[in-house]
């Protein structure tokens, strides 16, 4: 017999968001195209969420001794997070499809009972037009909430709105 268990928040490990080393996935000498993913998390009123934890995971490039594939950043007083990683490439989807390069994101914060899951795709990627998940979002303005935009040559911005107008698309896992 299976018994459902409650989803857990970050709980007693909240202090780990103060370890800024976790926000740099290249800290072990990872080689590749280094990028910085930044963004601001806002609530339904448009106010910054100053106590959020943003975790990322990516399947490309593959995890190795030099690249953990996972990182974590807290938001600052302006609701901004910042993570340094390697730009991902495409990954296999279902059947013969390929998923566009993306970074998986989950968000924890006060008042969020369980994690919120979303993704950061990269504006201008050719595979965005055929990506299975992006293809399920019919409305262009909703799909755009998943597109990180370049700010310079190595910085990508994805702002995340938790509720209300321009709410980010979240994924039900």
Report the oligomer.
Answer: single chain
Structural class: mainly beta
CATH topology: Protocatechuate 3,4-Dioxygenase, subunit A
Instruction: Please report the number of helical segments.
Output: 2
CATH level 1 name: Mainly Beta
Low-confidence stretches: none
Using the 3D structure, state the CATH architecture.
Sandwich
C-alpha Rg (nearest Å): 16 Å
Protein described:
- This protein has 173 residues and is mostly beta strands.
- It has a single domain (15-161), classed as Aromatic compound dioxygenase (Protocatechuate 3,4-Dioxygenase, subunit A, Sandwich).
- Helix content is 5%, strand content 31%.
- The strands form two sheets. Strands 1, 2, 3, 4, 7, 8, 9, 10 and 11 form a nine-stranded mixed beta sheet that branches. The protein has a two-stranded antiparallel ribbon with strand order 5-6.
- The longest helix is centred in the last third of the chain and has 4 residues, at 132-135.
Give a quick rundown of the structure.
The protein has 173 residues and is mainly beta. It has helices at residues 132-135, 140-143; strands spanning 34-42, 53-57, 70-74, 80-86, 91-92, 98-99, 102-108, 116-122, 147-150, 155-157, 160-161.
Q: In terms of topology, how is this protein built?
A:
Layout (H helix, E strand, L loop, with lengths): L33 E9 L10 E5 L12 E5 L5 E7 L4 E2 L5 E2 L2 E7 L7 E7 L9 H4 L4 H4 L3 E4 L4 E3 L2 E2 L12
Parallel strand pairs: 1-10, 1-11, 8-9
Antiparallel strand pairs: 1-4, 2-3, 2-7, 5-6, 7-8, 9-10
